[in-house]
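Supplementary Data S3. Sequence and structure tokens for construct A.
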Amino acid sequence: MGFELICEIEPSPRPDLKHVRHQIGVLSRVADAFLVPDNHRGQATVSSVAVAHEVEAMGGRTIACLNSRDRNLLGFRRDLLTAAAYGVDQFLFVAGDKPTAGGRTSDLTVRSMLDEVHGLPADPAFAGTAPFRAGVATGLRPLPAWKQAADFVFVQVSYSVDALLRWRETVRLDVPVYAGVMVLASAAMAARIAATIPDIEIPADLVERVAADRMAGVDAACAQILALRDTGAFDGVHLVPVARYREVAAQLESASRNPAS
């Protein structure tokens, strides 16, 4: 399998999947698979498993994100049973964003979710179902042994190809590794990221370019994707296009048609 582009879609906070379908229709021209977030940014959204099923019905390949924050073990098993019934077989397990209301309800961790999935082949309730593939996310730091047991790894968003390469040189993995790339849509978005995710460093010159030109963030993200592809260090990219998915799809499609440009 070659270099994969996994596009994250914006889930719906309402019982309406029109926007989801539109994103899939636009991004399917360039995406190899789609990541469906789970209660994105701590706000309730349509089930990631249900949306993943909808996307696969449209012909897309999906990874459903499940967070440990909002689940106990019973709820997690419910989601796995639902996924098996729908034929959704790939997950990304994460801790979850800080909720907009209430607190954590979980007695789960990402590690215990991964352990649970690894034990399913011996569970009679899942006899005859396709095995699940479960991935984890990591920051640009040493990878603990239990995360190395995942089926794939998503690396935290970074605006630096060099920083991602330095991290990649520190780990030896026999599973796919996807670098995180996020479109910077505005200077205000940069300020929000700095306030909520201090681990993500955004170059000041990029913020200045984005403030002057709304397409600068798209240009930078697409250039970063192509640069990461050319390094050969990663199996693909996890792209967060935010609201710029139309522009990103158009630019990446153009790049694929004109690889020398």
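Construct B, processed identically:
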Amino acid sequence: MFCTRQAPGQDFSLEDQIAEQMAEITGDAQWATGRDGRKTLILEHKMAARRMGFEGVFAPLYAVAHLNTALMDGTLPILKVFFDGVAPIVAAARSDDFTLMEAVRLRSPLLDPKHLEAAGNNQFELLESVGVATHALCEMLKDNNPLIEEVAQILQSSGLLALPDRLVAAMAQGATADPVPETSDREALEIHAYRVVLGRRYSEMAAFAGYANGLSPYGTHQGVKGLEFPRVMVILNDEEAGGFLFSYEKLLGITPASATDMKNESEGKDTSLSRTRRLLYVTCSRAEESLAIVVYSSQPEAARDRVIDAGWLTAEEVVVL
């Protein structure tokens, strides 16, 4: 276990330094090969967003409460356009023309059999326009990092992929970096969030897609139950997570348990303490070969003393940074 004070800003290089220390401690060089050499478990998706560089896309959408569920499970329409539409087409472009056109055929409404039939004698021109739009999209994203708005404009002007109505409404108003408007209008809040996203770079959306599809070195504490990985780094940081259902600070004795926690515990009911204890067990038991627990705390020495006194770890297994 590595205990340190709250990380300033968004500098997560300490976690890479700890991985290098783990390579020395365990004799496993894979720890030092970068983030892909380990599975890092975080408590909230926004923690992965900060570390993987897609917070600029994630944060404005997460700020709109009624979008949260669809955002978390990847079914939000704007995400599906990029996750299930653009990303597979761009990936197919790295293969061959047949694979690329098959990817487009499966996703573009322009190649829907009914649309083709309606084109009648103009089917050749339609197919040609699809090819031009596909080429323009792939060229824009080849060795470039355009704004999401620029990518969306190609999709809209060509009709290559269907865009959700509220994204189209956002495009009509243009990208913005303005703060969230003071309104309770759900549609206005959603459109504003999309306008903010339009002003971000495509690389952020691509990173988000990789994370959502389980292709990243990050995962949530709750999302890895039943899975195992050779090397696991568990990040404990209540302040960054900002949740209320779990509290590692309470579990480590840094923050006192609330009166409600104590009452529920005495009555055999579930508490933030019991939930956190179970969650910690789940995360720590994901490691097949070696495990690093990184605790960000206002009182790292107290965290160290707690785990040693509780018999969870020996003094030699805890490092205060």
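The chain has two domains: 2-43+221-320, 55-212. Residues 2-43+221-320 form one domain.
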